[in-house]
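wait is this the right file?? whatever heres the structure
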């Protein structure tokens, strides 16, 4: 009996020491971004000066790290998979995502969930891949940097991921702004540290700037509190830039339902699965407007591989734009890719500076 007790105690001690060691390692390697950081231009490409009255386009797309195509599900959404099926899936998705971006030829492209060196995407540097394929100037800002995520089984492992902006306009300077983090210790150590990125571009015959903001708000925060705090910070920043006379355009995965749905419509998604809570439009002042395509969904839930028309396929409109009232929007359209290469569809905006 004593021998068994000693073995049990030894195992408990080993487990405790292992857990303490893991927490210590994650703490020592924790990504701790400052409030505001300067961002380098990862590639100097085409450099045009924006003009008042000229029609431009912007593309916004959460590419799901090229690992959440129609054949995948995801454990955080009620599915079973942790990593994509195989490397070939990731490579095929990335190739086709890039092809679509090039075909759309937008003047600004906002991408979310772009991996740099992550176990889940076989350490493919997607930023380098995009930079080589696209002719524009670009910036990249981290949202997720964890040396080792120990859950679930198999573990997620190393994740380096973030938001990528590609633009034909000149980039005078770029910055990353840290957003509120809804997670506490120790969960915080292996979680996202989301920020939004900002690029400033010149406008012909004007001392004002075109301010392009790329954002991806939290998904799995408790009671929507993280998203609300992040939305408020984002709008406060927009108001500050607008007060300078600048033109402000945001492309984002808001992770909030942009339509005005009823409680019953929201609750069509089962309570045990992730739901998109409503975006609080009262936070927007008269000088800003939310733009999205109300006619078709922009994202699906990854509770199972995509099956069009299935009762277990849950879709949302959570991707879109916010523009200041000195920007005239003529069209916003979700490009229905049927989730072939990502769990989100791209959304395209046509606009002019007034």
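ok assuming it is, sequence goes like this
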């Amino acid at each position: 009996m004593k021998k068994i007790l000693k073995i049990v105690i030894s195992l408990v001690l080993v487990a405790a020491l292992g857990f303490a060691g893991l927490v210590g390692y994650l703490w020592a390697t924790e990504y701790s971004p400052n409030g505001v950081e300067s961002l380098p231009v990862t590639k100097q490409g085409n450099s045009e000066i924006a003009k008042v009255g000229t029609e431009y386009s912007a593309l916004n797309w959460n590419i799901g790290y090229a690992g959440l195509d129609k054949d995948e599900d995801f454990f955080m959404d009620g599915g079973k998979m942790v990593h994509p099926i195989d490397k070939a899936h990731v490579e095929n998705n990335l190739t086709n995502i890039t092809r679509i971006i090039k075909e759309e030829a937008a003047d600004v492209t906002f991408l979310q969930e772009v991996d740099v060196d992550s176990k889940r995407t076989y350490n493919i540097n997607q930023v380098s891949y995009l930079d080589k394929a696209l002719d524009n100037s670009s910036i990249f800002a981290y949202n997720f940097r964890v040396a080792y995520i120990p859950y679930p089984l198999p573990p997620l492992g190393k994740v380096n991921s973030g938001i990528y902006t590609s633009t034909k306009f000149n980039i005078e300077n770029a910055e990353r702004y840290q957003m509120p983090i809804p997670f506490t210790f120790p969960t915080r150590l292996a979680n996202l540290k989301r920020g939004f990125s900002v690029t400033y571009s010149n406008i012909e015959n004007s001392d004002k700037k075109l301010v392009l903001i790329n954002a991806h708000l939290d998904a799995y925060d408790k009671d929507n509190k993280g998203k609300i705090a992040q939305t408020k910070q984002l709008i406060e920043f927009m108001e500050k830039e607008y007060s300078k006379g600048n033109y402000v355009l945001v492309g984002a995965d808001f992770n909030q339902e942009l339509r005005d749905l009823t409680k019953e419509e929201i609750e069509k998604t089962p309570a045990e699965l992730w739901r998109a809570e409503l975006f609080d439009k009262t936070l927007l002042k008269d000088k800003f407007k939310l733009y999205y395509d109300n006619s078709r969904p922009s994202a699906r839930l990854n509770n199972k591989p995509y099956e069009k028309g299935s009762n277990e396929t849950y879709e949302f409109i959570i991707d879109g734009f916010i523009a200041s009232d000195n920007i005239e929007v003529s069209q916003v359209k979700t490009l229905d890719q049927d989730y072939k290469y990502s769990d989100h569809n791209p959304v395209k905006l046509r606009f002019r500076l007034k």
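The first strand starts at residue 36 and ends at 38. so i think its the right one actually
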